[in-house]
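DATA SHEET
Item: assembly model
Revision: 1
Owner: S.N.
Input lines:
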Amino acid sequence: MRGGTENVYGIVGLAKALEIAYEHIDSDIKEISALKKYMAEELQNSIPGIQFNGETNPEHSLYTVLNVSFPPSDHSEMLLFSLDIAGIACSAGSACSSGSNVGSHVLNGIKASPDRTAIRFSFSRFNTKEEIDYCVEKVRELFLVKA
Amino acid sequence: MKVYLDNAATTPMHPLVVEAMVPMLANQFGNPSSIHSFGREVRTVIEGARKKVAQLLHASPSEIFFTSGGTEADNMVLRCCVLDLGIKHIITSPIEHHAVLHTSEDMESRGFAKVSLVNVDGCGRVDMNHLESLLMENPKSLVSLMHANNELGTMISLVEVGNLCRKYDSLFHSDTVQTMGHYTHNLSELPVDFITGAAHKFHGPKGVGFLYINHQVKIKPYITGAHKNVICVEGLKMFMALWV
């Protein structure tokens, strides 16, 4: 069906990874969903004007992804960079003003405001509540102290 | 403190996955298409992996095709549906992964298929009424809508979209790269024709993924070259086993 010599070790790794994922799927869903909910609540309590992009009903929302929409501010464009300096890895997306070719086609597709900064935090079974606390604290520092 | 919160981009490998891979890297170097013992051992390992994946997803091993990842699997679906199955119309959404969007655009720009984009709301939810009207106007389409959006996390109902596709005699592909290994997919019940997975999104290695193709759909190889005929090789293996 697909020509070429198979990626043997990759295929073995894939099957093993899927097997492990299925063994723990119920507890992972529970724990990672709780982390996501916790981070959303902590951010909401910390930063006025914060919103979330995408579906908010947890039943129809991927439990590993939290897309945070930060209110406009002078340093929000530097947010991803500042978090990276603080040792936190996440992804940025932005809606672009018309005519510009940069930015996320997804955020443009849902007509997100180009004035707000979107940061995607995405979780796995290896993340902890302590890591979320550290991340929220850093976001709070960057956002409020410098504001 | 270092904190990794970008697991939708990629995930760290599970130590047990590394452990399972090491013997294949270190010792079992045979070409799985070789019919001697070195090859047969490796072929057995690959077919075991295919069986495992199929079992977990309630599919048949002959419906699982390993690829280089999600992007290749998505390309394979779209291009093969147009080139082999005579699909003339693709319905997708403006917030799909570029593997689907750019491939659809390519099919359209070459004049092979027309592409329609279904409306999504401010949360990334698919407008099901619009989808139905697009299907009504264009039966026998290919619908490609991701199970969960990689940026927003917004999900579709595979059952709802799949049933609508069946109603209008259309094929349904869902890029399930973000949900594979994170939710259970029961393919004996789901009304889908194609779903995809990428190992590195569920603590596996990069550069490997798979495509599920419902057994009722027949497409030709997308990557052409020497490729084994499983039944033939398996038959030969049994024959060889009598000799060794």
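QC remark: Helices of chain B lie at 15-26, 37-57, 70-85, 98-109, 128-137, 158-167, 230-241.
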